[in-house]
Amino acid sequence: MDIKDKKIFVTGAGGFIGSHLCSKLVQCGANVTAMLHYNSRSDWSNLEFLETEEKKSLKIIKGNVEDSSFMDSQTKGHDMIFHLAALISIPYSYRSPLSYIHTNILGTTNLLESCRKNKIKHFIHTSTSEVYGSAKYVPIDENHPLNAQSPYAASKIAADQICLSFHKSFNLPVTIIRPFNTFGPRQSLRAVIPTILYQANKKNEVQLGNVNSKRDFTFVDDTVDAFILTLNKKKTIGE
Fold first, then answer.
1. Which string of DSSP letters, residue by residue, matches 108-158?
2. Mind listing the pLDDT tens digit for each residue in 69-91?
3. Catalytic positions, please?
4. How far apart are CA 159 and CA 71, in angstroms?
């Protein structure tokens, strides 16, 4: 599918992956509405790092995915939605699980209802590799059992299942993407690769925790390419 001139709505646009996705969509000629979580500072988060011309091409709105009427009105008239807005910190989910229920489950449900009302042609939902928990076998595939080992993971599993239910119940064109260990520019120090680079650069030494685990990492540009490729493949609908 040629996305040039398509009207694309992106939630979580100020995040690590979201900002890179917005940049690529603009480069492809899409008309992008970038939604940021409202804050009193009025900053653009990671969108601040985009090229000047890219920022000028964006339509920026600020709000909250937990506000259903806001999502209904703002998504109207768009062709596609990339849903990346979420609470993502695993440690914080132990302290405030209800916040994750509100944002990740209720927020996603609001977007799905908006898609129904506004006849959105494709809804791409961002999940996480965390839904699988500790690997029962490798490589992990889509048939791997879901195993929530944190309230965060549980909220993402629930959001995934709600998305699939809207496809099965209402024939809503939904695709779910589960990125694995994305890394690259703009990533926060809560992730391992930026932490290693920071320590090596600033402290001239690297201190790690468990060094026996293994991970497959995906560069952010490749993750973004995967997001866009889903728009070109009808067989991803409902998957």
1. HHHHHHHHHHHT-SEEEEE--GGGG-S-SSSS--TTSPP---SHHHHHHHH
2. 999 999 999 999 999 999 999 99
3. 152
4. 17
